[in-house]
TrEMBL record:
Residues 1-64 form the DUF2007 domain. This is Putative signal transducing protein. It comes from Primorskyibacter sedentarius. The lineage of its organism: Bacteria, Pseudomonadati, Pseudomonadota, Alphaproteobacteria, Rhodobacterales. InterPro entries: DUF2007, N-reg_PII-like_a/b. It holds the Pfam family DUF2007. SUPFAM superfamilies: GlnB-like (SSF54913).
Length: 71
């Protein structure tokens, strides 16, 4: 698995996951428990991972839909 994006914005991951799902690209969210433990401060980012073979298509999909990859 490769990192597609990393963010502290709680709205970005769900949007990205729906876009990926619609295109048949599997994704996996990391660091969910850590960001929940820190509360609502928003200092610990969550990461969204995709398969290495899907990374280029996933990046293009995010760019086409205005999802920031570098937060």
């Amino acid at each position: 698995m490769e990192e597609l994006l990393r963010t502290t914005d709680i709205t970005v991951i769900p949007l990205a996951r729906v876009l990926l799902l619609d295109e048949g690209i599997d994704s996996f969210e990391l660091d969910v428990n850590m960001s929940v433990l820190e509360g609502s401060i928003g200092i610990l980012p969550r990461r969204l991972m995709v398969r290495r073979d899907d990374l280029a298509a996933a990046r293009q999909l995010m760019m086409d839909n205005g999802v920031p990859l570098d937060r």
